Amino acid sequence: MFDKLCSFETFLFLGCLPWYFVASGIWLALKHVQSLPLISSNGDTSCPRLSIIIAARNEAGTIENALKSVLAQNYPNLEIILVNDRSNDGTDKILQKLAEKDPRVLIHHVEELPPGWLGKVNAMQQGIGRSTGVWLLFTDADVHFQEESLERIIEVAERSSVDYLCVVPEVQARQSLLRALYTVSLSGFFLATRIWEVKNQKAFVGVGACGLVRRSLLSQSPGLPWLKMEVVDDLALAQLVWQVGGKLDVYWGRECLGVEWYPSMGDLI
How many CB atoms lie within 10 A of CB 206? Predict the structure, then answer.
């Protein structure tokens, strides 16, 4: 009887252990990472040049609505660099249609991938080469920006004098199982990156939804050639800034940025 009880307690302990780590990651993130502030009523009204760079490869199903959310922003000093990375699903036609309606949009087509580069990082590099912004904001082709998002992001970056700002998006998942899996993966990400240590510059974190980097800092660093074969390019970009002594910060993007994790379990698998 005693042996059976010990076995049950061991089983229960092992079953609860993963959820302890999940809860720990979420708790630490909630305690140390703030939500992105609203625009201050007496804040600096200057709007430095902002270049949004979106690398897109076969994103016909998501990019139109995502890009429309960017075009709806009222940020006055904005350019949008769309890099079509060898798409063959009609993405190029969608980009062209939207560019014809808005002079802020510039399209660059990647026809061939240079040796020694991954496609996403090369597309980001091509976007940098065609941008003119003081700030460069890298985002994905399925991210939706809420009203005044860009003003909020830039105001925080300018006020905090950071070189790199990561904004973690609000993620939607339609199915309960997807929401549970996302919570687990997000907690693991927080624990692995030690997101609560970013503000005191003891760690770095980056996400593809919003990575804002100061151009002058990037120009003084090895740049994207340093991460040209990095699969996790968003995290590697944050690491690059961190290693050259740049100041980093991270915020929650609730009611600022949104993205759907996966439409269904089939898409996840």
Answer: 27
- What residues does each domain of the chain span? 2-268
Query: In angstroms, rounded to a whole number, what is the distance separating the alpha carbons of residues 92 and 119?
Result: 16
| CATH number of the 2-268 domain | 3.90.550.10
State which of 19-28, 63-72, 168-177 shows the largest mean pLDDT.
Answer: 63-72
- The β-bridge partners of 259 are 171
Question: Has this prediction a pTM greater than 0.70?
Answer: yes
List, edge to edge, every strand of the sheet that includes 211-214: 105-110, 78-85, 50-56, 135-139, 211-214, 164-172, 248-260, 144-145
